[in-house]
Amino acid sequence: MDVFTRLKKWFIRLFVLVRKNLRKMEAHLDRRQPHPAFGVLVIVAGVLVALAGVAMLVLPGPGMLVLALGVVGVMVGVGIIQGKYGPERLARERAAKHERLRRRRARQCADK
Q: How many domains does the chain have?
């Protein structure tokens, strides 16, 4: 076996290994997403805390701190919802769907 054939086989093995690991990582990320209702609850809680912070601006209490915590809560809730339905996840799901379709077509062509 010459050097070029060995290099070619080595690169193919490396490519297959990298693809396998990427699929495992994507599957792990997909499993770890919380339910979108949790994101809505976090947003509602953040809005309530922010409203309490606005009230504390004129009433006694740490108004700015509570207002900042409420805004952070809203941002976290939006992040949870975007993690479930965000553009990156949708693009990943679309790519996975196209990959499954390509494999099915390849199997059908091989069967003929």
A: 1
Structure tokens at 56: 């504390």
| 15 belongs to a structural domain | no
- What angle (nearest 5°) sits at the alpha carbon of residue 100, between those of residues 96 and 101? 115
Instruction: State the pLDDT at residue 25.
Output: 67
Per-residue pLDDT, 28? 63
Please choose, from the candidates 39, 38, 73, the residue with its C-alpha nearest in 3D space to the C-alpha of residue 53.
Answer: 73
- Asked whether residue 29 carries a pLDDT value surpassing 70, the answer given is no
Tally of residues, the chain: 112
Full domain range(s) for residue 41: 35-111
pTM score, whole prediction: 0.50
